[in-house]
Design goal:
With 456 residues, the protein is of the alpha+beta class. The chain folds into three domains: 88 residues, Uridine Diphospho-n-acetylenolpyruvylglucosamine Reductase, domain 2, CATH 3.30.43; 125 residues, Uridine Diphospho-n-acetylenolpyruvylglucosamine Reductase, domain 3; 215 residues, FAD-linked oxidases, C-terminal domain (Vanillyl-alcohol Oxidase, Chain A, domain 3), CATH 3.40.462.10. The protein contains 15 helices and 18 strands. The strands form three sheets. Strands 14-11-13-12-16-17-15-18 form an eight-stranded antiparallel β-sheet. Strands 5, 6, 7, 8, 9 and 10 form a six-stranded antiparallel β-sheet that branches. The two termini are 14 Å apart. 43% of the residues are buried. The structure holds flavin-adenine dinucleotide.
Length: 456
């Protein structure tokens, strides 16, 4: 860097002084010094908030000219500092939040990257449509989720959100404005979707939609066998009778037992499935949908409007805020893994997890046949996203972090591919291992579109 920070700050304000909002005071920028994970602290010099594409381009050009680093940020929901500037500036894109007209014929909607998913839902739902895949939390930004992947309860059919993107407009590290799609600049499209903003900034996008039915019936099933639970998910993953599928692991019947290393807590795990079927008039028939499944109990059947179902996790997020869990640390682990491998290693993993990590463990099936080239999943059939998502972990709870580090290594050693928004472990993330034989492709695209590495 060729300037002192103080110099830079005033230079930024003067040079980008076409009205771009630059926040520099320490108390206002402290929120950008960490992310939802609350495990990695950064050192941002300030927050730049462009309000238009022109402003955004000017900022990127300025960063290029002065060899400044920019860390693009939406809501900052990552867990390993992926949205935290270690040096340089935070580039907050939340002001670019327009949602445009829905195209009912093409079944698509265009929007800017700072729009939240709840804004997209508000526009599409009145037309009887929704994005093909929605995340469980609708407060995050479209650009942030497209930069990580986007898993939801319809992923068993549609894959991650990024498998359902018509096009994206990007500002590259060279400050070029480029529209790309699967056929137009596909190498950039493949590198930016799920690419953590390291090759370019997503400015706007067009998303594919699906037609929904007005109501949804959700069957909540209980399993006491991991094998039966996995088997049924793989079966349901291929079924076109159901629309939503989510798997859960619940700890129950806890106790303490003697082990060679002394007394240890243990838990008996139970498993759950939530199977959602959308309908208009004719109600889905229990026996048709659940025929041939090996659950031990149907514990609940929920009927609601599909418009309300998309917000079903809001009480969980509200509870996390009310109890203070939201402000604790979140070493979340999400990993893509084949059904076969997951069934082999999951019992050992569940047995290792401290009970204090609670019941936020999930396995969601994700179709893997239409992925951007650089979004990594194991090259096998029947892929799950296995996730350990504790509501909050106390800062001093180093034991849980040690265990999660071991789990991370186990998943990677078994051929798992990490979902990149999570806590990526104690050591530097191994990008070569992650991309495997596609690593060189990634490096080439990075060199072409962000040669000065202003996006880190
Ligand atoms: C409570 C909670 C619930 C979640 N639920 C889900 C879920 O259901 N499904 C799921 O898949 N994930 C889920 N996540 C993970 C979440 O998708 C990611 O953390 C995502 O990053 C959130 O978007 P954001 O707006 O907070 O982006 P940020 O965290 O701010 O940014 C994410 C990454 O993208 C980059 N980035 C941000 N905006 C842009 C842009 N416009 N252009 C280029 N790069 C950009 C950032 O630099 C960063 O690397 C959840 C996270 C939380 C905390």
């Amino acid at each position: 860097m060729t300037f002192s920070i103080q110099n830079l700050k005033s230079k930024i304000q003067n040079s980008i002084d076409s009205g771009v909002n630059v926040i520099l005071d320490c108390s206002s920028i402290s929120s950008a010094c960490t992310d939802f994970g609350n495990l990695v602290r950064g050192n941002t010099c300030g927050i730049i908030q462009p309000c238009s594409v022109e402003e955004l381009r000017t900022v990127v050009q300025f960063a290029n000219d002065h060899h400044l680093q920019l860390k693009t940020r939406g809501k900052g929901y990552t867990q390993s500092g992926q949205s935290v500037a270690q040096e340089g500036f935070t580039l907050e894109v939340t002001q670019l939040n327009q949602v445009y007209e829905l195209d009912t014929t093409a079944k698509t909607i265009a929007c800017e990257a700072g729009a939240k998913w709840q804004d997209i839902v508000a526009t599409t739902i009145s037309h009887g449509m929704l994005p093909r895949v929605l995340p469980l939390n609708l407060e995050q930004t479209v650009g942030g989720l497209l930069s990580t992947g986007g898993i939801g309860s319809t992923s068993k059919t549609y894959g991650p959100v990024i498998a359902n993107v018509v096009d994206i407009d990007i500002i590259t590290g060279n400050s070029e404005y480029i529209k790309c799609s699967r056929t137009q600049k596909p190498e950039l499209y493949d590198a930016v979707l799920g690419g953590l903003g390291r090759c370019g900034i997503i400015v706007s996008t067009t998303l594919e939609l699906r037609t929904i039915k007005q109501y949804i019936r959700t069957f909540h099933l209980l399993y006491d066998s991991l094998d039966a639970w996995m088997h049924d998910q793989v079966l349901l993953g291929k079924s076109n009778q159901i629309d939503h599928l989510e798997g859960f692991c619940w700890s129950s019947a806890k106790g303490i037992r003697n082990t060679p290393s002394g007394k240890r807590f243990f838990t008996h795990w139970l498993y759950g499935l939530q199977i959602g079927v959308e309908y208009s008039i004719i109600e889905p028939c229990l026996t048709d949908i659940l025929k041939g499944l090996n659950y031990c109990k149907l514990i609940h059947t929920e009927d609601e409007e599909t418009a309300s179902h998309v917000f079903r996790y809001q009480p969980r997020f509200d509870m996390m805020r009310e109890t203070g869990a939201w402000n604790q640390t979140h070493p979340w682990i999400d990993c893509f893994m084949s059904a076969k491998t997951l069934a082999e290693i999951m019992p050992e993993i569940l047995d290792m997890l401290p009970l204090s990590l609670g019941d936020g463990h999930r396995a969601i099936m994700v179709a893997s046949d239409n992925l951007p080239y650089l979004f990594m999943m194991p090259p096998e059939d029947d892929i799950f996203c296995f996730a350990i998502l504790p509501v909050g972990v106390a800062t001093h709870d180093t034991n849980s972090l040690d265990v999660l580090e071991k789990v991370n290594q186990m998943l990677l050693n078994a051929g798992g591919k990490r979902y990149l928004s999570g806590w990526l472990g104690k050591s530097d993330f191994n990008w070569k291992q992650h991309y495997g034989n596609r690593y060189d492709t990634w490096v080439t695209v990075k060199q072409q579109y962000d040669p000065e590495c202003i996006f880190g």
